[in-house]
# Entry
Amino acid sequence: MRLIGLRHGQSGYNVLGLCNDDPADPVALTATGTEQALAASDQLAGQAVDRLYCSPLLRTRQTAELVASRLGLGVIVDERLADIRSGFNGRPVAEYLAAIADDPVNTRPVGGESLYDYAARVGEFLDWVILQPFPQVLLVVHEETLRVIHARAGRLSLAQVAGMPFANCQPYFFQFDSENL
# Structure
């Protein structure tokens, strides 16, 4: 199976440098984010995508809906793909990064989850989706989600992918086989 990972388009909180991990907060795409999503859908137009799953956060749902409309797909929201619970919702990303700097894999901020915890949650989804009869699935998710997928697909440790950047609306392709199931 091949997974295509697509980070959501630019959001208002991306511009402000703020954390958003609460699906109840309506953090939407910016005009740039909408343009990014439409450009990504053009890039993906030639791909035979069987299913499109996304996080429940507004910015991912908006991105997924724009891409899905161009690809002729429905959007399936899966709670397991929600962004990492940082414990810093609405606060500066710099504060969150400072709080986990000593151990970005295992630090669990108050009210949040560690990257290790998050990888287990996303791993449940990956374990399930990899066994589905779909050759190619598109996931519209978050940067942290793409780190977890990259670690799993590339047989890397979480420490190796912690902090790895993934651009907004750039498609990333991951191959899963019997070696990384």
